[in-house]
Amino acid sequence: MKITGNEPATGFGYANESSNAEYEGLTIRQQLSMFAMQGLLANTEIIGAHASEDISWISKHSIHQADDLIKAWNEMSNPNI
Q1: Is 45 inside any structural domain?
Q2: 20: exposed, middle or buried (C-beta count within 10 Å: 0-12, 13-18, 19+)?
Q3: Neighbouring-strand partners of residue 33
Q4: pLDDT per residue over 21-53, tens digit each?
Q5: Nearest to residue 69, comparing CAs of 30, 40, 42, 43?
Q6: With a threshold of 0.85, does the pTM exceed it?
Q7: What is the span of the domain harbouring residue 71?
């Protein structure tokens, strides 16, 4: 099953008045980005190596890591493992 990353990260949802499914919370892509950023921020060696740079590299790199993981997931022959 291929994913775009825009799917809800959790199965919690509800039907609104027009019976369209709506979800609260993060998408798969947002949650993967969050975990990637958490890992980067926890690694003092990475933070120290980039101390002179604009801090926005952490956000951008976290999103790229999430996108790469989604791409790899979709390339797997059996992603349900």
Answers
A1: yes
A2: exposed
A3: none
A4: 666 778 899 999 999 999 988 988 888 887 777
A5: 30
A6: no
A7: 13-75
How many other CB atoms are found less than 10 A from the CB of residue 66?
22
Residue 22: in which H helix or E strand, if any? Answer: strand 21-23
Contacts with 39 (C-beta within 8 Å, 6 or more apart), sequence order? none
Other Cβ atoms less than 10 A from the Cβ of 12: the count is 9
Q: Which residue has the tokens 């790469």?
A: 68
66, part of any domain: yes
Is the distance from CB of 45 to CB of 77 less than 8 angstroms?
no
Q: Give a yes or no: residue 36 inside a domain.
A: yes
**Residue 14 gets which letter from DSSP?**
E
Q: Are 26 and 9 in contact (CB under 8 A)?
A: yes
